[in-house]
Specification:
With 402 residues, this protein is of the alpha/beta class. 39% of the residues lie in helices and 17% in strands.
């Protein structure tokens, strides 16, 4: 049985639902397999409701979330440096107190305390690594020097010894493997970002009815550089009320806010506070179509099958996405619904949206993409590693007795 698990996730938990879904799964479904689970992260600075596990389960699971300050864009360089150091130092002290036998860390931002702990204090600790995004060599060349240095440490010391290194889909894993050809094949895994199966319990049936107007929704980050926001808004306005478009985004630039105010359209509504993750099923079920708007700027974007794809499908929404993206391509669906349809956002005038919305003769097919099965496989691997180590210890003891 596993004893102590540490999860190191430098970026605020609230910005990354896949990690909070995993923590929920550990606390609610697998709590009896852990004596202690400690999470090390930072405070969010974008007004998100603080994530926590409900009090009784929280205590029963022996689960504790430790937070450090997160650098704010308005902080001066000295304060930002202190905040970086605070996370690394406090996390290292936490690891020394916890003495975990397994560590899961997320991305290069989280490397330093894991590196020090496993290099100096506990060389037997098992290391698992997951990446929310695919970070190419070009990305590391252009990012801040500190993260570039962390990546050098993990390439040299943590990648070779890791039991598990995962990306969110097979394409991203393929690029990662090309970047690191010396890694063993059995180390490399896919761990996709699916929502909890509990999302289906809150569904309303109304979004499958052919009602007018057609209601579109986008939930996520926004910028003009990275998304087809303007192209979509101009098209919606041109439909003169046949299409309604609602946007829920808290992570966006000021020029986007200015654009929405200037647009002043009754058919485009912007909610700048966004929507909390656990409230999304009730909200999404009121719409017909969920939108993915990312442009194909790099491999990470182009080959991304984003969280939203599976969250929209879980709530029975059709999904429209830019045809330049390759990540959603394997999920294209036109012979059943909800549909997943690629669109040329640069030529929206050619888009036959009535045909895209038509479901006549199609059978309903509920989403099969939920996180519990994914996390069961992952946690089974954590437990298997620990059991394997215990068996080796037990065999050694028997040999000594003989």
């Amino acid at each position: 049985m596993l004893k102590k698990l540490a999860i190191v996730h430098y970026l605020p938990l609230e910005y990354y639902p896949p990690v909070t879904n995993l923590i929920d799964y550990l606390a609610y479904e697998r709590k009896n397999e852990f004596d202690k689970i400690s999470i090390y992260s930072s405070h969010n600075v974008k007004g998100r409701k603080k994530y926590q596990v409900s009090s009784s389960k929280y205590q029963d699971a022996g689960l504790k979330i430790n937070r450090s300050p997160f650098p704010n864009e308005k902080d001066n360089s000295l304060i930002r440096l202190f905040e970086y150091l605070h996370f690394n130092l406090c996390t290292l002290i936490g690891l020394l107190k916890l003495t975990p036998n397994v560590i899961l860390y997320y991305e290069s931002y989280s490397v330093l305390p894991v590196y020090i702990y496993t290099k100096i204090f506990n060389r037997k600790c098992k290391v698992f690594i997951h990446n929310h995004e695919y970070a190419s060599k070009d990305w590391y060349d252009s990012t801040m020097k500190l993260v570039k240095y962390y990546h050098k440490l993990e390439k040299k010391c943590l990648y070779p010894r890791a039991e598990w290194i995962s990306q969110t889909n097979a394409d991203r894993l393929h690029f990662f493997q090309q970047d690191h050809p010396h890694l063993r094949k059995e180390q490399l895994r896919v761990m996709p970002n699916y929502p909890p199966s509990g999302w289906r319990k809150t569904l309303q049936v109304s979004n499958q009815q052919s009602t007018t107007p057609t209601k579109l929704i986008y939930v996520g980050s926004l910028s003009f550089e990275d998304t087809y926001l303007k192209e979509l808004c101009e098209w919606v306005v041109a439909q003169k009320g046949n299409i309604l478009f609602d946007v829920y985004a808290y992570n966006l630039y000021e020029d986007v806010k200015t654009y929405f105010k200037a647009l002043d359209s009754p058919w485009v509504n912007f909610f700048e506070q966004g929507i909390e993750y656990n409230k999304q099923p009730q909200l999404l079920s009121r719409y017909h179509v969920g939108l993915i708007l990312y442009k194909a700027h790099n491999q990470n974007y182009t080959y991304n099958a984003p969280n939203k794809l599976f969250e929209y499908l879980a709530c029975d929404l059709d999904v429209w996405y830019p045809d330049v993206l390759q990540g959603p391509l394997p999920y294209n669906t036109t012979d059943s619904y909800p549909k997943v349809i690629p669109i040329d956002f640069e030529n929206m005038g050619l888009f036959d949206w009535q045909k895209a919305r038509d479901k006549e003769g199609l059978k309903y097919k509920a989403s099969e993409f939920f996180c519990e099965e994914v996390y069961q496989t992952f946690v089974d691997e954590l437990v298997k590693q620990d059991k394997k180590r215990n068996r080796i210890k037990g065999t050694a003891k028997k040999t000594l007795r003989k």
